[in-house]
C-alpha cells in the first residue's frame, strides 16, 4: 500500500481482515492483506540496541538476535543530560533498524525511577519527569529522522516489576499528572512519536489497556496524539474492552483467537464496527508512514561502536576524587581487581538484551596497553568471599601504587521481570573494597550497576566512577575517563541515598501483590529528600570533573508569560570540560504542598580551559505551574518564586527572587467562612467594614498583641462571639461582594 489509508480502502476490507489488522502476527509483525497488496511491518526491542531475532521468533525474545551495537543503557545516557547526544543515539538506532528491515523500534522507556528497588530502572532515564521527557523527546526525534518509528513505553505508572501484569498503581491525580504522565506528555507534544506502548499495570484500579480516560481522553483529546496505541506483549486482558478504550493494536496477538473474538463481538453488538474502523485506520496509517524495505543491508557498525564509546565516556559520573587521584598517570602501574573487569556487566537483561557487535572489556583494554597486573578477587556469580582470593588481592593491593576495583550488581540480581530486594552490592565485593582501601590510599572503585546502590565504603576509598551499564565499548570508555583522555561530565539523574530505608518508598514498595500505593505522592527522589532535609550519599544532578567551573552574573528578566535567565559560566580549571547547568524553581506563591524546588531546565555546555560563555534560557508559564485536580487544569499562582542555577539539586551557585503577576485579577468571593485576617488585609473592603460599623471592633481585636493572631485565624462567622450581630454580617457580605 502506498497511498494514505482512506475510508474507501477500509470499506474494501472484510470484517475478518479488519479484525486481523488490530492484532500482531508472528510475535513481531502486523498483519498483511495479500489481496490488497498490504504488506506487514516488523517491530523489535531496541532501547539501547537492536534486538531483531534472527530466526525462530518467540514471544519472550529468548532466541538469538542479529548482531548489533550495544549502546549504553538509559540509566547512563540520562546522566549525560545531553539532548544532542540522545538525538545522535536515536539516529544510530534508526539506521540499524532500517538496515535490518525494522519499521518500529520499541523504545525509549521513560518510566520514573520511584524506588531504587525497581528491577527495570536501568532501562529508564530518571526520577525527574523533565529529564525523562527532554531526553526521551531527543531520542525519538533521532530515531524518527531515519524514517523509523518508535514506541514510547510503558504508558503509564509502570514502576515495579513484581506482579506487573495485574498490580494497580494507586495515586493522586496531581501525582499522576506532575510526575508520572509529564514525560509522556512532553514527548507526545514535542516529538510526535509513531506509537505509544500501553503498560501491563492498572492505575487506580483500571487496567491501562482498558482505560478510556488514559488512552483517549488524556492521550488523544488533551495532548493531541494521533499515532497508534499498542499493548505491551501480553498486556491485553479483554481485547474488546481495550478497543473501546482506545487501544489500537494488541501485541503479540493470540493467533486466530484474536480475530475470532473481534468478529463475534461485532456480530453480537459488543463492539461497533465504527470503533473497530478507527483502530484499523490508525494501524494502516502507521504501516503507510513507517514501512521500510524488509531486505537487510549493511551499515557501519564500527562507526556505531565508536559512538557508543564516546557516549559512554561523556556520560560517566565521577562521584569522588580525593587528592585528584584521577586521572591515572600510568596505566601500567595500576593493579586491577574484580572479575567484572574481565566479565563486565555492560547491558540490561530481559527484552533490552542485545547480541553485541564487539565487546571490549576493561581488562582486555588494559592488557593491550601493557598492564598485566590483574586478579579476579571474587566471583561475579557468588556472594561470599573466597578467603584465598581475598588475601591474595589485598596482598597485591598493599604493594601497588594504585588499585582499580571493578564492582557492581550481577545481572542475576537485577533484570526485567522482578524487583530487587536490596541496594547492597554482594558481600564479597563490599569486603574486597573495604579491605583493599584499608591498605592502599589510592583505591579507585569503578561501578557497574543498573540503579542506585549503597556504598558503606565510600568514605574510605580515594575515587569512585559510576559507569552504570556502559554498552559494548565499556572497556575503552572506562579507561578513556580513568586516564584523562576524556574529562568526565556526567551527573546523576537519580538520587543515591545512604541506605534503602532513607527512600520514600521504603516499607511500602511491593508490600502488596495487588496494589502499589504511592504514599509519597509528588515527593519522589530529590523532591522528597530536599523537603525532608534528609542527607543523601550523592544528590540528584551531582557529578565531578577534572576541571572547575565558576557560575556568575545571573540576571533574570520577567516578561509576559515567560522569564529569561542569563548567566556567565567560566571554566577556570586546568583542562577543557563540559558542565551541566541545572535551573530550579522554588514556588513560594501557592498555598499547597510543593517541593522545596523543582528542576525546570538544564543545559550542557562545552568550555575550553579559561573560556567563558553566556548562557541564556527561557522559562514559561508551565514551569511555574502545578496541577489542580479540582479544576482539572495546570494552575500558575501569582506571587513570589526563586530561580536558582547550579551544579546539583544541593549545590545552587546563583539565585534570584522574582514576583510574577501573570493572572487576571479575580478576587475570591467573600463568605462567612472567609478568614478575618484575609478581610483586614484588603483595603478595598474597608468601606464595607466602616459602613456596617464592624471596622472599629475588628481593628481593636486584630491590633491587640494578645488577640491579633487568634482573631486573624477566625472565620468571619465567628465575629458574632465578639459582639458583631448577624445583620451586620449579612449586610457586610452584600456590600463586599458588590466590589468583586
Quickly describe the structure.
The protein is an alpha/beta fold. It contains 22 helices and 26 strands. Strand 18 and strand 19 form a beta hairpin.
Overview of the structural elements:
The chain is an alpha/beta fold. The chain has four domains: 7-290, TIM Barrel (Alpha-Beta Barrel); 311-531, Rossmann fold, CATH 3.40.50.1700; 549-660, Immunoglobulins (Immunoglobulin-like); 676-739. The protein is 29% helix and 19% strand. The protein has 22 helices and 26 strands. Strands 10-16-15-14-11-13 form a six-stranded mixed beta sheet, with helices on one face. Strands 1-3-4-6-9 form a five-stranded parallel beta sheet. Helix 15 (427-439) links the parallel strand 14 and strand 15. Helix 2 packs across helix 11 (273-290) and helix 4 crosses helix 5 (129-144). The longest helix is centred in the middle third of the chain and has 18 residues, at 273-290. It is globular and about 95 Å long. The N and C termini lie far apart (62 Å). 53% of the residues are buried. The mean pLDDT is 95.
Spell out the key features of this protein:
alpha/beta; TIM Barrel; Rossmann fold; six-stranded mixed beta sheet; five-stranded parallel beta sheet; 22 helices; 26 strands; 29% helix
Topology:
Elements: H1 7-12, H2 15-21, E1 43-45, E2 67-68, H3 74-77, H4 83-99, E3 104-106, H5 129-144, E4 149-155, E5 168-170, H6 173-180, H7 182-191, E6 195-198, E7 202-203, E8 206-207, H8 212-222, E9 228-231, H9 239-245, H10 256-267, H11 273-290, H12 301-313, E10 317-321, E11 334-337, E12 355-356, H13 362-368, E13 374-375, H14 387-399, E14 402-408, H15 427-439, E15 443-448, E16 463-466, H16 474-482, E17 515-517, H17 526-531, E18 549-559, E19 562-571, E20 577-587, E21 598-607, E22 612-620, E23 625-628, E24 633-636, E25 639-648, E26 651-660, H18 676-680, H19 686-691, H20 695-703, H21 708-712, H22 726-739
Parallel strand pairs: 1-3, 2-12, 3-4, 4-6, 5-7, 5-17, 6-9, 11-13, 11-14, 14-15, 15-16
Antiparallel strand pairs: 7-8, 10-16, 18-19, 19-22, 20-21, 20-25, 23-24, 25-26
Amino acid at each position: 500500500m502506498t497511498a494514505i489509508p482512506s475510508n474507501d480502502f477500509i470499506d474494501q476490507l472484510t470484517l475478518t481482515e479488519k479484525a486481523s489488522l488490530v492484532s500482531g502476527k508472528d510475535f513481531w509483525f502486523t498483519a498483511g492483506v495479500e489481496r490488497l497488496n498490504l504488506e506487514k511491518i516488523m517491530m523489535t526491542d531496541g532501547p539501547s540496541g537492536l534486538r531483531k531475532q534472527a530466526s525462530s521468533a518467540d514471544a519472550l525474545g529468548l532466541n538469538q538476535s542479529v548482531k548489533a551495537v550495544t549502546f549504553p543503557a538509559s540509566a547512563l545516557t540520562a546522566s549525560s543530560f545531553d539532548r544532542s547526544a540522545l538525538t545522535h543515539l536515536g539516529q544510530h538506532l534508526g539506521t540499524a533498524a532500517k538496515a535490518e528491515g525494522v519499521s518500529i523500534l520499541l523504545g525509549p522507556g521513560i518510566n520514573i525511577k520511584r524506588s531504587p528497588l525497581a528491577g527495570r530502572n536501568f532501562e529508564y532515564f530518571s526520577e525527574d519527569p523533565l529529564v525523562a521527557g527532554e531526553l526521551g523527546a531527543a531520542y525519538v526525534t533521532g530515531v524518527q529522522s531515519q524514517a523509523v518509528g518508535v514506541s514510547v513505553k510503558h504508558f503509564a505508572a509502570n514502576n515495579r516489576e513484581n506482579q506487573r501484569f495485574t498490580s494497580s498503581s494507586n495515586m493522586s491525580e496531581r501525582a499522576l499528572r506532575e510526575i508520572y504522565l509529564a514525560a509522556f506528555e512532553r514527548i507526545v507534544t514535542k516529538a510526535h512519536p509513531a506509537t505509544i506502548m500501553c503498560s501491563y499495570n492498572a492505575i487506580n484500579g483500571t487496567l491501562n489497556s482498558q482505560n478510556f480516560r488514559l488512552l483517549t481522553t488524556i492521550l488523544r483529546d488533551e495532548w493531541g496524539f494521533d499515532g497508534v496505541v499498542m499493548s505491551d506483549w501480553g498486556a491485553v486482558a479483554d481485547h474488546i474492552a481495550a478497543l473501546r478504550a482506545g487501544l489500537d493494536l494488541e501485541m503479540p496477538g493470540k493467533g486466530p483467537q484474536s480475530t475470532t473474538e473481534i468478529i463475534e463481538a461485532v456480530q453480537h453488538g459488543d463492539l461497533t464496527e465504527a470503533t473497530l474502523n478507527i483502530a484499523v485506520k490508525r494501524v494502516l496509517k502507521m504501516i503507510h508512514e513507517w514501512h521500510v524495505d524488509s531486505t537487510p543491508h549493511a551499515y557501519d557498525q564500527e562507526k556505531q561502536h565508536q559512538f557508543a564509546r564516546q557516549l559512554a565516556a561523556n556520560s560517566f559520573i565521577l562521584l569522588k576524587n580525593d587528592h585528584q587521584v584521577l586521572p591515572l598517570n600510568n596505566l601500567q602501574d595500576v593493579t586491577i581487581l574484580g572479575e567484572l573487569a574481565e566479565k563486565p556487566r555492560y547491558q540490561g537483561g530481559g527484552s533490552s538484551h542485545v547480541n553485541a557487535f564487539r565487546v571490549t572489556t576493561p581488562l582486555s583494554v588494559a592488557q593491550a596497553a601493557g598492564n598485566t597486573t590483574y586478579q579476579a578477587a571474587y566471583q561475579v556469580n557468588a556472594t561470599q568471599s573466597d578467603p584465598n582470593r581475598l588475601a591474595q588481592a589485598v596482598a597485591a593491593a598493599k604493594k601497588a601504587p594504585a588499585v582499580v576495583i571493578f564492582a557492581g550488581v550481577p545481572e542475576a540480581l537485577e533484570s526485567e521481570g522482578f524487583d530487587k530486594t536490596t541496594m547492597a552490592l554482594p558481600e564479597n565485593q563490599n569486603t574486597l573494597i573495604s579491605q583493599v582501601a584499608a591498605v592502599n590510599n589510592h583505591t579507585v572503585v569503578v561501578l557497574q550497576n543498573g540503579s542506585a546502590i549503597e556504598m558503606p565504603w565510600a568514605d574510605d576509598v580515594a575515587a569512585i566512577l559510576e559507569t552504570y551499564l556502559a554498552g559494548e565499548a565499556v572497556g575503552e570508555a572506562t579507561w578513556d575517563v580513568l586516564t584523562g583522555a576524556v574529562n568526565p561530565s556526567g551527573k546523576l539523574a537519580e538520587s543515591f541515598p545512604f541506605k534503602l530505608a532513607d527512600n520514600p518508598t521504603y516499607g511500602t514498595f511491593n508490600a502488596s501483590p495487588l496494589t502499589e500505593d504511592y504514599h509519597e505522592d509528588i515527593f519522589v527522589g530529590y523532591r522528597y529528600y530536599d523537603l525532608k532535609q534528609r542527607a543523601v550519599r550523592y544528590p540528584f544532578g551531582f557529578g565531578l570533573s577534572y576541571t572547575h567551573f565558576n557560575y556568575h552574573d545571573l540576571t533574570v528578566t520577567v516578561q509576559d508569560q515567560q522569564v529569561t535567565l542569563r548567566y556567565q559560566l567560566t571554566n577556570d580549571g586546568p583542562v577543557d570540560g563540559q558542565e551541566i547547568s541545572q535551573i530550579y524553581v522554588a514556588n513560594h506563591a501557592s498555598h499547597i504542598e510543593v517541593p522545596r524546588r523543582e528542576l525546570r531546565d538544564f543545559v550542557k555546555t562545552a568550555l575550553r580551559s579559561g573560556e567563558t560563555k553566556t548562557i541564556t534560557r527561557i522559562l514559561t508559564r508551565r514551569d511555574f505551574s502545578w496541577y489542580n485536580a479540582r479544576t482539572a487544569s495546570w494552575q500558575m499562582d501569582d506571587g513570589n518564586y526563586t530561580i536558582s542555577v547550579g551544579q546539583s539539586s544541593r549545590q545552587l551557585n546563583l539565585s534570584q527572587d522574582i514576583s510574577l503577576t501573570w493572572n487576571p485579577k479575580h478576587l475570591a468571593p467573600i463568605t462567612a467562612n472567609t478568614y478575618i485576617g484575609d478581610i483586614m488585609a484588603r483595603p478595598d473592603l474597608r468601606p464595607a467594614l466602616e459602613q456596617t460599623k464592624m471596622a472599629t471592633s475588628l481593628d481593636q481585636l486584630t491590633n491587640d498583641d494578645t488577640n491579633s493572631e487568634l482573631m486573624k485565624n477566625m472565620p468571619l462567622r465567628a465575629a458574632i462571639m465578639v459582639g458583631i450581630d448577624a445583620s451586620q454580617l449579612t449586610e457586610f457580605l452584600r456590600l463586599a461582594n458588590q466590589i468583586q
